[in-house]
Amino acid sequence: MKKYAIIVAGGFGTRMGSHTPKQFLLLNDKPVLYYTLKTFLEAYSDLDIILVLPDDYTDLGREIIDAYFDYNRIHITAGGETRFHSVQNGLKLVQLESIVFVHDGVRCLVTKDLIHRCYEAALEAGSAIPVMPVTESVRLVTEEDSEALDRKVIVTVQTPQVFHSKILLPAYERDYKEWFTDEATVIESFGLKVSLVKGEENNIKITQPIDLKVAESMLSA
Fold first, then answer.
1. What integer pLDDT is reported at residue 71 of this predicted model?
2. For a designed S-S bond to 128, which of 11, 21, 122, 192 qualifies (C-beta 3.0 to 4.6 A apart)?
3. pLDDT in tens, 151-163
4. CA dist., res. 164 & res. 64, Å (int)
5. pLDDT tens digits for 177-203?
6. What are the φ and ψ backbone dihedral angles of 176, each rounded to 5 degrees?
7. What are residue 76's phi and psi, to 5 degrees?
């Protein structure tokens, strides 16, 4: 089965407090995006990457590819107004029936093991969403009050979120809704259930400056 990985790196990362989008910030002297691309390319030799970048930063993306990777396996397209639109743009380059990974470009510590487990699960069930249990107490806040929730029935969601193209492509032909926060919510709005797999504690998302420090420590370890 053909494999595509849509690496979503179309945001600007305003919470990072940097003029440079966080996917291009240096992590141990290499761009954050380098580690994400490297792991996916090494995970499967027959996997092609569709790299979704901010329109003004596609040239910088090409510089990273020129410096480190084989251009034949990486295709660049521009991001959209939201994550939904960025993924939608990436899906336009999916030409064959396939298993499609959608991954945050700034989850640069993803492992080949997680990629393989998600692929096998999606191959069997049609989808695979990596999740992690919540370890802290959680509350639901409303306009009037708040209430404690049972953390045993709550998980946090990671990427890569993985789907058969026969499921993902038609789901993304619909109009955008503001509650489409990830691919799983789009699929569920299409009337389909998603399959959950265990994620990884180290599969963090680089969002704030402290996350870069944590990632540096993990890479050194």
1. 85
2. 122
3. 999 999 999 999 9
4. 29
5. 999 999 999 999 999 999 999 999 999
6. -70, 140
7. -105, 135
60 burial (CB, 10 Å; 0-12 / 13-18 / 19+) is: middle
Each residue of 44-77: pLDDT tens digit?
999 999 999 999 999 999 999 999 998 899 999 9
Global pTM exceeds 0.90: yes
Which is it for strands 74-78 and 146-149: parallel, antiparallel or unpaired? unpaired
- Largest pairwise CA distance in the chain: 55
d(CA 11, CA 58): 12
Other CB atoms within 10 A of residue 42 CB? 11
Nearest CA among 90, 106, 92, 48 for reference residue 73: 48
DSSP for 52-83 reads: EE-GGGHHHHHHHHHHHS-GGGEEEEE--SSH
Here the tokens at position 35 are 């580690």
